[in-house]
Records
---
Amino acid sequence: MSTDSVAAPTAPVILVYAVRERAKAFARTAFPKRKAKTVVVKSRDEFNEAMRRELIDAVVIDVGGGGEEAWELLALGQDFPSAPFFALVQSRTTDGPAIARATQMGVADILTEGIDEDAARDLVGPFTYTTRFARALQEPPAALGLSSDIQKKTWAALIAHAGRPVTTKDLAQEIGITREHLSRNFALGNGPNLKRVIDLVRLISAAELSKNPGYDVRDVAAVLGFASSSHLAVTTQRIASTRPASLAGLRAVDLVERFLQGRTRSRVAGTGSL
């Protein structure tokens, strides 16, 4: 996925591992509530729980004061490649070895306490999962035939949620029209109806997250807000005629191809429920 900047309607979720007060203060300043949702944890158990509770856009690990546990958590970046990992270091001349170690571990970038507070959002933002997901799907697949102004605006609003739960009502509000108008005009002709397109985008995100070695099917269902792994299984079967366990091997283009094989319209078009 590209790392070019894309605006999202919802604030990114930043997971921060920090045991020092100064590191926690860095997180509060760098990611204010009006711009991001910051989840601060101070143990490995809390970290693992947070990673499986909601869709995490990026991870910041305070390697300047977390001891060996911080480095163990930083190494988990290999298990969760969908979420870029950043190392937070203190502004000290003795931090050279920590910076070198973090760089060798493949972090997205190094954040420096006392220096990068004001720049952190600009440094982290382009790498977040939501931003990269929206950039990768910026143009709706031509095969879907989404060419009208309403269809394109709706697609842009939809992919900016990166597979999180969203309703027809939500999308209508974001593009400035009524839900009835959106439902009536999105699926004109023989095009796919909006409810099915919402499911398709959620499934594309599920396939992307399934490629994380650290997630199983239950985890993917949970972080994307499916009611259960069974709900994800039903959606996978309805949209792609396969099982969730197969999603890791499928690309967005594969899912679109399967979707177009007679699965583009639900019985009641344009309903707001998922």
---
Amino acid sequence: MEGHVKALAILHIVFGGFGLLLAVGLLVLFGGLAGLVGAGDIQDAGHMPSLLMGGIGILVFGFLLLISLPGIIAGIGLLDFRPWARVLAIVLSVLDLIHVPFGTALGVYGLWVLLSADGERLFRRL
């Protein structure tokens, strides 16, 4: 079961890393769009459209960062068999169930590994 916990930890880190890459990519995209909108503004009517695009980019970045970081933190904690990481990973696994198809698979696998008697024993022995 120790191998399953390590595999689950790596999967959480990888999925969280993909979320962070997506967040940075969208921040760059919205920043570029804000620059293009600001550069295309011929009239001096204000910079509201470019500020709006930049603001949307920052909000999307913050949201994706907020949902990606807990997975990375849980994965790092699971690698060290920390009890708090088990609880966090269980909560994340339940939330992952609604993200069809990959999140559902990760959620089911996480719940199977962490709620099994052998998985629970791994976190108690420390």
